[in-house]
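[step 3/7] fold_predict: job queued, chain A
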Amino acid sequence: MKPVREKAIKDITEDADLEAIIKRSKVCHVAMIDTENRPYLLAFNFGYANRTIYLHCTKEGKKIDVLRNNNNVCVYFDCDHDVFARNEEVACSWRMRYRSVLADGKAEIVEDYEQKLEGLKLLMTNYSFQEFKFSPPAVNNVLVIKIKIDKWSGRSFEY
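[step 4/7] structure written:
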């Protein structure tokens, strides 16, 4: 009898596992629909807590126009990349392991100063263990975008 081979692609459904992937990711990619009904995709640094993603950016630009027109977004995270070969002599046997999360939600521009501050602190926590202080002009001069995750799913490949 031939041994059963595990599936290379596995669904990840547990909330704790999905959050772990997000927390190991260093960049997220946010997909939007522009004013001409075309896809628009950007990479962002981010903060995360309690099924909520925080982004920061300048107060003007295409992404702001796009989000004000249609705030539906899809956010993609990935981590644990590892290139390997099942057979180094065969090109098609080369693969890349990864884990990923795809999250849907609505982007909201944060107006409240304290919420902006909280989002910026979460963002810095993702990149440093240091605690930061933010001056009012620094907080007021950036835009903070909050995305509550409505639906999410995850995948792993070759893990």
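[step 5/7] annotate
The domain at 9-157 is CATH 2.30.110.10 (Pnp Oxidase; Chain A).
The longest strand covers residues 94-110.
exit 0
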